[in-house]
Write a structure and sequence with these properties.
The protein is of the alpha/beta class. The protein has 18 helices and 24 strands. Strands 3, 4, 5, 6, 7 and 8 form a six-stranded parallel β-sheet that branches. The chain has a six-stranded antiparallel β-sheet with strand order 15-12-19-10-11-16, covered by helices on one side.
Length: 611
């Protein structure tokens, strides 16, 4: 297929309307958004390729005529892990300024305006593409997690502008400006039994069910509760052992591939009338075979809180006119309030929606259209492979909370993980993390990790102790010394040996609430010496409060009177800046703040937080 930019600025494609969609995602939101762009393109007659940024062969980028980038921003301005390789490549100083002058592009970013560097990854990517000569098809879109409607406020208008721009860009000889598909879109894939002809893919490419490539077989050797039995939060110590030698660095993450509860899978098979064919093996893509039961158990997120895209798909399968009208209303701009009240606030699940809209009957070949893919989950590794050869340790909070409807919700991955008996064989992945130890072991490190955020710091501490580094400080926050002080015995042993300064903030064992930022404020001279005088590294990791429109009963580990989505890292940052400003002659708040910003640029300040 030959593609080129016409002299009038339009893109001519000799075979079809085609473009590439690349996404970078941590939690799956950017991937879901990219898939929605692809599905909308498919309905309008375009052919798309959809890939994660780290799966795309970067040498081919210079030959792409049109690319849509969708990326989230993590923490205070960091790019997702699967964007790192692309970003490092684009930052090469030897790249010519006209490298991408034949490529049109668009960028849609997902972020949280509660952070100072809102949508920083998308903004950086946009600027760098422009500096390499790429032509911007459409102004950058910025979705804000703080918005009442979440992504929908920005995404709908941006998507409309995208296809308006595409209709002009693709307006070459012999092509209609816009080709709308049927009311009900075709299935994303054709499911065929293995004795039928080879699978035919539809125009929307990029469906990738789970592959075993890059995964490591392990045995579960430890799975027990760490918190006190009567404590409100259930945190598990999980340990795996691999058959062969493995390699990872402190700060890396383990990738887990959860499964949906068997009862939920059985219910959905019965509800959709798929029981008779549930165990027939189908070809789902050129590289995947699965039964419908396996598809629902391992590949599709049937327990998710549905997004707007779910209702856009499922409305086509309702036979009752009143139900069809209501489902359609949820897809309109005017229906966003109702959609938010029906799904987001009460955390109503896909299964509950299907139990209420009884006329919905989804053909099995449309399952991939309707249900989102079940995403892998990433957990910070809580061990050094040098201290524990062939082993991977995790510290996992089991997600369980009550909604505003007083209905108990459970996290799919953590509930599955907690249920596994010792001796279970599974496969996991290993991925590069965002935290890295200083190469010079004489440089001090300061770690701030409330709750399960302490997990990667166990790995960092083990690695440092083995290397003979003793200038290590940990600020750990918990509610009760006896109930949820994770790895307490280990921290105290390190401290007794002079290998760790252990600063413990226990918030509820006394009348005055004490948090990690309060302890930092007490340690002015130590913080100044560690970070300024001795050029140390600073790390923050932990849970932060969810945005106000999301209601959970699980209580945060930080002050409840500040509902900002990034209060903990923000409070810690403020405390550090205050210490630096007070710690030396000639320092003030402004100079200290610039110093912390430079620490970030120099790779000496790392944040890994989640909500």
């Amino acid at each position: 297929m030959t593609e080129h930019i016409g002299s009038n600025g339009t893109l001519h494609d000799d075979e079809s309307h085609s473009f590439l969609i690349l996404f970078a995602s941590e939690t799956g939101n950017a991937q879901d958004t990219a898939e929605r762009i692809g599905l909308e393109a498919f309905k309008r007659g375009y052919k798309t390729r959809l890939m994660a940024m780290d799966a795309y062969p970067l040498d081919d980028l210079v030959d792409e005529p049109l690319v849509i980038f969708v990326c989230s921003t993590t923490g205070n301005g960091a790019e997702p892990r699967n964007m790192m390789t692309l970003w490092k490549t684009l930052l090469r100083s030897d790249l010519p300024s006209d490298l991408l002058d034949t490529m049109h592009f668009g960028v849609f970013g997902l972020g949280d305006s509660g952070y100072e560097r809102f949508n920083w990854a998308a903004k950086k990517l946009q600027r760098r593409l422009l500096s390499l000569g790429a032509l911007e098809l459409i102004p950058r879109g910025d979705a804000d997690d703080q918005d009442f409607y979440g992504i929908e406020s920005a995404f709908g208008p941006w998507l409309s502008r995208l296809f308006e721009a595409l209709s002009s860009t693709f307006a070459g000889p012999g092509h209609a400006a816009e080709t709308l598909g049927p009311t009900r879109p075709q299935p994303r894939v054709v499911m065929t039994t293995l004795d039928q002809p080879e699978l035919l893919l539809n125009q929307f490419e990029g469906l990738n069910l789970r592959s075993s490539r890059g995964r490591i077989p392990v045995t579960l050797t430890h799975n027990e509760r760490m918190t006190r039995a009567d404590w409100f939060q259930d945190v598990h110590r999980i340990e795996f052992k691999a058959d062969d030698d493995i390699s990872y660095e402190p700060g890396d993450v383990a990738v887990l591939y959860p499964e949906n509860p068997e009862d939920d899978v059985t219910w959905l098979l019965r509800r959709m009338g798929w029981e008779e064919t549930a165990d027939v093996t189908y070809s789902i893509s050129p590289y995947n075979t699965a039964t419908i039961r396996q598809l629902l158990a391992k590949h599709l997120d049937i327990c998710a809180v549905p997004r707007k895209s779910f209702f856009e798909s499922v409305q086509h399968f309702a036979s009752d006119e009143r139900e069809k009208e209501k489902l359609n209303d949820f897809c309109t701009k005017e229906g966003l309030d109702d959609l938010h009240s029906y799904t987001t606030r009460p955390r109503r699940t896909i299964l509950e929606v299907l139990s209420e809209f009884k006329s919905v009957a989804i053909p099995p070949e449309y399952a991939v259209n309707v249900f989102p893919l079940l995403r892998p989950r990433e957990f910070s590794i809580a061990s050094s492979v040098k201290a524990h050869p062939r082993e991977v340790h995790l510290c996992v909070a089991i997600v369980r909370y009550k909604t505003i409807m007083k209905v108990t919700r459970k996290g799919v991955c953590t509930t599955w993980l907690a249920s596994l008996p010792v001796g279970t064989r599974i496969e996991i992945g290993l991925a590069e993390g965002t935290m890295r130890l200083p190469e010079n072991i004489k440089k001090p490190i300061v770690m701030v990790g409330p709750g399960t955020g302490v997990a990667p710091f166990r790995a960092l501490e083990e690695e440092r102790v083995l290397a003979g580094a003793k200038d290590n400080t940990l600020y750990f926050g918990c509610r009760s010394l006896e109930a949820d002080c994770h790895y307490r015995q280990e921290w105290e042993e390190y401290a007794n040996k002079g290998e760790l300064t252990f600063r413990l903030a226990v918030s509820r064992d006394q009348d005055r609430k004490i948090y990690v930022q309060h302890l930092i404020q007490e340690d002015v001279s130590q913080i100044f010496d560690h970070l300024v005088t001795n050029e140390g590294h600073f790390y923050i990791c932990g849970f932060v409060v969810a945005r106000p429109s999301t209601t959970y009963s699980a209580r945060p580990l930080i002050a409840a009177d500040d509902r900002s989505s990034n209060q903990m890292p923000k409070a810690v940052r403020k405390a550090v800046i205050s210490c630096i400003a007070k710690g030396g002659d000639g320092w003030d708040e402004a100079k200290a703040e610039e110093f912390v910003k430079k620490m970030e640029l120099d790779g000496r300040w790392g944040e890994e937080c989640w909500s």
